[in-house]
Amino acid sequence: SQTIHQWPATLVQPVGSPLSLECTVEGTSNPNLYWYRQAAGRGLQLLFYSVGIGQISSEVPQNLSASRPQDRQFILSSKKLLLSDSGFYLCAWSDGLAVSTDTQYFGPGTRLTVL
Amino acid sequence: AQSVAQPEDQVNVAEGNPLTVKCTYSVSGNPYLFWYVQYPNRGLQFLLKYITGDNLVKGSYGFEAEFNKSQTSFHLKKPSALVSDSALYFCAVRDSNFNKFYFGSGTKLNVKP
After folding, report:
1. Which of A5, A72, B3, B32 could cysteine-pair with B94, CB 3.0–4.6 Å?
2. Confidence of residue A76 (pLDDT cuts 50, 70, 90)
């Protein structure tokens, strides 16, 4: 069966510091990968998605970036964090094989607080 | 463009009563619709989805959803609510042409004993 991991679970960082959040998926190959941010415990904002190694689509211009160095690894980064980057970051995967079977599955999330 | 709307920020129901969480959608092409549940400080858990076929879809934890094409709705239902069903519920639609999912704003379900 497939599993998705995120780490760290929680993170407190000062303004202006760098960021690296990691997401890995097990039990599948060539998944579609997604980064979302959830602010104030409500709506999801799609940040990035990737359909393959090195292929990143950005949904919202901001000081965050994403990379996919390996098939099942997705990294969210920032060179300098802003207060507004605080939130709950969720990684998700889907098989992307067919619309009829494609379902997104989410990781446990990372709670980021920027002070 | 694809979108879903959850018109209720919060739904309150007594334990043992039926519950409904509403979702309406707007899509070009066939609708591929999903429901997820989120408990505090957790990721979203998949509940059920509608792709094609029977308009009544059954999912996890006794939940079901009714697809209504004429009303462009996909409401989540459960015959008898439990206190443990209290959580945040999201409706989503998958874009048929691109690898993206669009989520509603979420509905907080409160089930009181």
Report:
1. B32
2. very high
